[in-house]
Design a protein that fits this description.
With 248 residues, this protein is an alpha/beta fold. It has 13 helices and nine strands. The two termini are 20 Å apart.
């Protein structure tokens, strides 16, 4: 039987870039699916584009641009960590192009909430390394402590990841999400994939409750950076979403 062809748009979290999806994307493509891994403005290989204007809306527009210019419909839109904010906003602005939302160790915000609102303790920790560079407040500065907090512990993996992380623009974390179509976005099918540990524990009780909702709620016993700490299992679960007949 011919496989059902899906289109995945994988959106990275704070301090990361499209590079973090390499192992997962390879497996999704090997199964015959289309995969896009955009890097958000001011991060990864686009770190040089950060400015005082870079905020949550900038990152939402980045993803909406991919959906529109690549003429994607029925996207399986996956957001890791901070990108729960981004994919929710992108679904609001490009509703007809999204078929399923996946919150991979990610917040699932409501209209008017910021990332800070979903987990102030974790975000305070991220801001503890804050520096102002060329008029831009940058947080989550790369360090071994940060990499290990993401659940990456093997020395070679720590070094590999540390070389690729970039500091994250603070404005994106404090800006509230503004939605025009919240009720319609809430009707989209969605899946939560969680991991035990620091980030889940650092969420507010309401944010933790939302992480246990959805058409599917899965858990992977690995670190926060599931696409790096458990790429095979992450890909396996995402592949299940490509088959509309699979109700597991």
């Amino acid at each position: 039987m011919e496989a059902f062809l899906a289109t995945y748009v994988l959106v990275h979290g704070g301090g990361h870039g499209g590079w973090c999806w390499g192992r997962v994307a390879k497996q999704l493509r090997a199964a015959g699916h289309e995969v896009y891994t955009p890097t958000l403005t001011g991060l990864g290989e686009r770190a040089h584009l950060v400015s005082a204007a870079t905020n949550l809306d900038t990152h939402i527009d980045d993803v909406v641009g991919v959906l529109q210019f690549e003429d994607i419909t029925n996207a399986i839109l996956v957001g890791h960590s901070y990108a729960g904010m981004v994919i929710t906003g992108a679904a609001d602005r490009a509703l007809t192009r999204v078929g399923h939302l996946v919150f991979l160790e990610a917040c699932r915000p409501r209209n008017g909430e910021s990332l800070y609102d979903t987990g102030p303790d974790v975000i305070d920790w991220a801001r503890s390394s804050s520096r102002i560079v060329n008029g831009v407040e940058l947080v989550l500065w790369p360090s071994e402590e940060v990499v290990k907090a993401f659940g990456i512990t093997a020395p070679d993996e720590v070094a590999w990841t540390l070389e690729r992380l970039t500091p994250h623009p603070w404005k994106t974390m404090e800006q509230a999400l503004r939605m025009a179509n919240e009720e319609a976005v809430r009707k989209l099918p969605y899946t939560n994939i969680n991991a035990p540990g620091m980030v889940m524990e650092g969420r507010t009780p309401e944010s933790r409750r939302r992480a246990l909702e959805g058409e599917r709620v899965w858990e992977i016993d690995a670190g926060h950076d599931l696409m790096l700490t458990s790429p095979e299992k992450t890909a396996e679960l995402l592949l299940q979403l490509a088959d509309p007949a699979d109700e597991r």
